[in-house]
Amino acid sequence: MTIGFLKRLLSRKAEEEDAIWIHVRCGKCGEGIKSRIDLRHDLTPRYGEGGNVTSYFLRKVLIGSGRCFQPIEVKLTFDANRNIISREITGGDFIAEGQARSSQ
Length: 104
Prior knowledge:
Layout lengths: L2 H15 L1 E8 L5 E7 L5 E4 L5 E10 L9 E8 L4 E7 L1 E3 L10
Antiparallel strand pairs: 1-2, 1-7, 3-4, 4-5, 5-6
């Protein structure tokens, strides 16, 4: 193995540690969709009075693989440590990881 290969491998592992996956099901056709959220780059910070980050926000619109093109809007709020504290979805439902396959 080369040093470059090991650096790339470790870099990818660090990237995955800074990411989470969400799993949703389309409310119209039932297709399961999973989407990766990069906790370093995808979140919008919200600032308090002192200029410190108090929370983060993410709005993401997902569309499946082409069966119905129904947009599924996901809104997540994170605390200052990037832990999810609230979630909303329009056009579908949140599902567990193993349910991300299509139901049809």
